């Protein structure tokens, strides 16, 4: 399991051509499946920026993410997929079902083989909580909704055993 922050900045390399495409700058999540759907990368030197579907990732190793070939790279996320994926999960407000504001998403951990989100991390206590690193974490099965304005989670997220 790796933090999403560990994946950002990781080089993407093709296996067949041995080309370093660039570095991961962001991800798009399929919030319904709690899984990374796409990796955005900044192109290396004269290479264009692009997108790689997670299902094309061969490995997410310690030093690089590998894909089979240049044929796995897209210029952009297909239009039919745009409504299904969620960019910029970080700093999203988090509320419980009963309306308690918990804080903001600070990160999440993913299984580097499957791209599945294993735990979300939320800074609690406002600005002071961020400074003191006051945090709760919980598995994706406790997420009830992942909207553009907030992540809504089960009330049990604040119960003992989920922090």
Report the CATH architecture of the largest domain.
Roll
CATH homologous superfamily identity of the largest domain: PRC-barrel domain
Could you tell me the CATH topology label of the largest domain.
SH3 type barrels
CA distance, first residue to last residue:
18 Å
Largest sheet: 7 strands, mixed
Q: Give helix % range.
A: under 10%
What would you note in describing this structure?
The protein is mostly beta strands and 163 residues long. It has two domains: 2-87, PRC-barrel domain (SH3 type barrels), CATH 2.30.30; 93-158, SH3 type barrels, CATH 2.30.30.240. It has two helices and 14 strands. It has helices at 4-7, 126-132, and strands spanning 2-3, 11-14, 20-30, 35-43, 50-53, 57-60, 65-67, 86-87, 93-96, 101-110, 117-123, 135-138, 143-146, 151-153. Strands 1, 9, 10, 11, 12, 13 and 14 form a seven-stranded mixed sheet that branches. Strands 2, 3, 4, 5, 6, 7 and 8 form a seven-stranded mixed sheet that branches. Strand 10 (101-110) and strand 11 form a beta hairpin. The longest helix has 7 residues, at 126-132. The radius of gyration is 17 Å and the shape is elongated. The two termini are 18 Å apart. The model has no long low-confidence stretch (mean pLDDT 90).
What's the layout of helices and strands?
Layout: E1 2-3, H1 4-7, E2 11-14, E3 20-30, E4 35-43, E5 50-53, E6 57-60, E7 65-67, E8 86-87, E9 93-96, E10 101-110, E11 117-123, H2 126-132, E12 135-138, E13 143-146, E14 151-153
Parallel strand pairs: 2-7, 9-14
Antiparallel strand pairs: 1-10, 2-3, 3-4, 3-8, 4-5, 6-7, 9-10, 10-11, 11-12, 13-14
């Amino acid at each position: 399991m790796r933090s999403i922050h560990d994946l950002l900045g990781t080089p993407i390399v093709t296996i067949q051509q041995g080309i370093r495409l660039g570095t991961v700058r962001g991800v798009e999540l399929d919030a319904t499946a709690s899984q990374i759907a796409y990796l955005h990368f900044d192109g290396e030197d004269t290479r264009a920026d692009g997108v790689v579907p997670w299902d094309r990732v061969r490995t997410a190793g310690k030093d690089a993410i590998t894909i089979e070939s240049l044929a796995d790279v897209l210029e952009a996320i297909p239009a039919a997929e745009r409504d299904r994926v969620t960019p910029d999960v970080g700093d999203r407000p988090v509320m419980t079902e009963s309306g308690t504001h918990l804080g903001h998403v600070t990160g999440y951990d993913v299984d580097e083989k499957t791209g599945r989100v294993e735990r979300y991390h939320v800074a609690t206590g406002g600005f002071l909580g961020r400074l003191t690193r006051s945090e709760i974490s919980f598995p994706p099965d406790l997420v009830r909704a992942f909207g553009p304005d907030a992540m809504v989670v089960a009330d049990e997220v604040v119960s003992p055993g989920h922090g």
